[in-house]
Write a sequence for this structure.
């Protein structure tokens, strides 16, 4: 579903895990750090949005100390429905698009 967004490309992280990128910038991927639960997606998010998501649905969204300093949110794939994931990836696309434009300057 992330690949359906404009200019999003599938890529591999340094450890071989799959990620989605936009203009060379990270958008989303499987969380591979040992602090993350199995079957967790890590998605670019604004800090305020992340706090709101976690407060609103802590059974779905969470954070570990390792990821805290990055503009990301962790998502339990077993707890999120398709529409919510599409919405989250769309927001991530907008944030990543702005970052990718800054990189090109």
């Amino acid at each position: 579903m992330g690949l359906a967004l404009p200019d999003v490309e599938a890529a591999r992280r340094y450890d071989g895990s799959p990620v989605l990128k936009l203009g060379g910038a990270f958008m989303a991927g499987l969380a591979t750090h040992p602090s993350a639960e199995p079957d967790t997606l890590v998605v670019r998010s604004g800090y305020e949005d992340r706090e709101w998501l976690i407060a609103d649905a802590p059974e779905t969204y969470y954070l570990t100390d390792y990821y805290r300093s990055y503009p990301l949110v962790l998502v339990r794939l077993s707890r999120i429905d398709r529409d919510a994931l599409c919405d989250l990836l769309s927001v991530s696309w907008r944030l990543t698009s702005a970052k990718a434009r800054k990189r090109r300057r």
About this structure: The helical segments are 47-56, 82-104. The mean pLDDT is 92. Residues 29 and 90 are 14 Å apart (CA to CA).
